[in-house]
TrEMBL record:
The EC number(s) this enzyme carries: 5.3.1.9
One Gene Ontology term from the biological process aspect of the record: glycolytic process
Protein name per its UniProtKB record: glucose-6-phosphate isomerase
CDD domains: cupin_PGI
Example of a GO cellular component annotation carried by this entry: cytoplasm
Length: 188
C-alpha cells in the first residue's frame, strides 16, 4: 500500500474519504445500564443512537496502525450518562491513545486484577490506555463528545467480560453534578 492522507473535521469528528463507519443504538447495549426500568421506558418510544465510529481502512495486521474517531452523543439513561460499550483488546498486550477533539467526558479503565481509574477528557487532552487495560468512554456534557483514537492493527476487540461484569466505576449525574461512583453491581 502507499502512504495517504485523510481529512478529519476536528469539531464533528467526521473523517472524509474511504473510511468505514459503524453505529451503536441503545438496543445494542441495553443490559449495560444500571437502571433497567429507565432503559425499558426509553425503548418503548424510541431507540436512540448513542454513538458512531469512523475508521480509516487499513489492513488489520501487525505493524499497521488503526485510526478512528468516536462521536458519542449527549444523553442519559436514568442518571447514567450515555457511554460506549467498552472492551479489552483481543490481543491484550496492545495499547491505545485517545485525543479529545470536542465536547467533554471521561475515560473509564480497568484491569483484570481489579485496578480501575476515571480520567477526565476535554478538547486537546490526550489519554493513554496501556496494554491490558479495558476502556470505556462517557459523555458528561451537553454536546457530542468527540475523540480520536490510534491503536495497533491487530489489536481486535473483546467485549465478552465487560458485557457481563461492566466497569468498577460509573459516571452519574446527581443533583446536577457529575460524580464518579463505585458500581454496586461490579463483581470480579
Ligand atoms: C477501538 C477504540 C474505539 C472504540 C469506540 C467504541 O479500539 O477503543 O474506536 O471502538 O470508541 O467503543 P466500543 O467499546 O463500542 O468499541
Ligand atoms: Zn480500544
Amino acid at each position: 500500500m502507499d502512504p495517504f492522507g485523510r481529512d478529519i473535521d476536528l469539531e464533528s469528528g467526521i473523517i472524509e474519504g474511504a473510511s468505514e463507519k459503524w453505529t451503536r443504538y441503545l438496543s445494542d447495549m441495553k443490559n449495560m445500564y444500571q437502571d433497567q426500568e429507565a432503559v425499558e421506558e426509553i425503548l418503548d418510544s424510541e431507540d436512540p443512537l448513542l454513538y458512531e465510529v469512523y475508521e480509516i481502512s487499513v489492513p488489520k495486521e501487525s505493524g499497521q496502525l488503526l485510526h478512528c474517531t468516536t462521536i458519542l452523543y449527549p444523553g442519559k439513561v436514568g442518571n447514567e450518562y450515555y457511554m460506549t460499550k467498552g472492551h479489552y483488546h483481543e490481543r491484550k498486550d496492545t495499547a491505545e491513545s485517545y485525543l479529545c477533539l470536542s465536547g467533554r467526558g471521561y475515560l473509564l479503565t480497568q484491569t483484570e486484577d481489579g485496578d480501575s481509574d476515571a480520567l477526565r477528557m476535554v478538547p486537546g487532552r490526550l489519554v493513554y490506555i496501556p496494554p491490558y487495560w479495558a476502556h470505556r468512554t462517557v459523555n458528561t456534557g451537553d454536546e457530542p463528545f468527540v475523540f480520536f483514537g490510534v491503536y495497533p492493527g491487530d489489536a481486535g476487540h473483546d467485549y465478552g467480560s465487560i458485557e457481563e461484569i461492566g466497569f468498577p466505576k460509573m459516571i452519574l449525574e446527581e443533583d446536577g453534578e457529575t460524580v464518579v461512583r463505585k458500581n454496586p453491581d461490579y463483581e470480579v
